[in-house]
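Methods — Computational structure assignment.
A single polypeptide chain was analysed. Its primary sequence is given first, followed by the predicted tertiary structure written as structure tokens.
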Amino acid sequence: MSEALALVSNNLPIPSALGSLEAYISATHRVPMLTQDEEQELAERLRRDSDLDAAKRLVLSHLRFVVHVARGYQGYGLPLGDLVQEGNIGLMKAVKRFDPTLGVRLVSFAVHWIRAEMHEFILRNWRIVKVATTKAQRKLFFNLRKSKKRLGWLTHEEAQTVAKELGVPLATVLEMESRLSGRDVGFDAPSDSGDDDAPPAPVAYLVDHTADPYQTLANDDQEESQLESLREGMARLDQRSRDIVTRRWLRDGEKATLQELADEYGVSAERIRQIEANAMKKMRALFVA
């Protein structure tokens, strides 16, 4: 099975291969979601026969869920595309270890592996963790502040002096000075501190581990489908009907009244109501189709 999963991973779409993250996300939403019976059958084929096609379908059908999980970690300031790729690795590991006889959906099992890979990536790349990584940087970390004569940024002369005293390149001193000048954030720091430049506290963007990942994904998928139906329905209306529906139902703020639209179009308020009702009937047909 390991060889089959390796082949699948080499053929997975990644953001860079599609030219943009938006194109990748759009592609993942075009992959159909599996029913529980389909998922069970594919998982059994993978475990029994190391079926490459079964593994590929299991992975591809859950790529959109990896994107969903990755969005929950954007508060760490890391590129979404990188988080997605790390999450895809976790998804591959989950597919490899998934046991269909346990009676759980793959998404419920995979979420832990996906998050684990993202957590490892964040720990390797988040600023606070990377303050001191090399030997020279560790030396600077413990000696730089006591070498400064005052608070604030080092002058060029001070930086040169520190570099000479500690035996490190000037560029290393300047890099560490930049890192140490960054501001850390308390886990539950109040959001109403009045500092517009203050980053959000981690408690504001950490993932809710008690949520049902499958239900969340299903709800997001349904909402996106409904929005697409709404856009399609609006596109089928004539200009007047589209304007009436938009101003009566879709515009933020105060909605237009029937009489206001009647005066503008030179017809009765009853005629505007009829146009609105016919337009809503046409669009409603797309939602129940």
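Note: Residues 41 and 82 are 31 Å apart (CA to CA).
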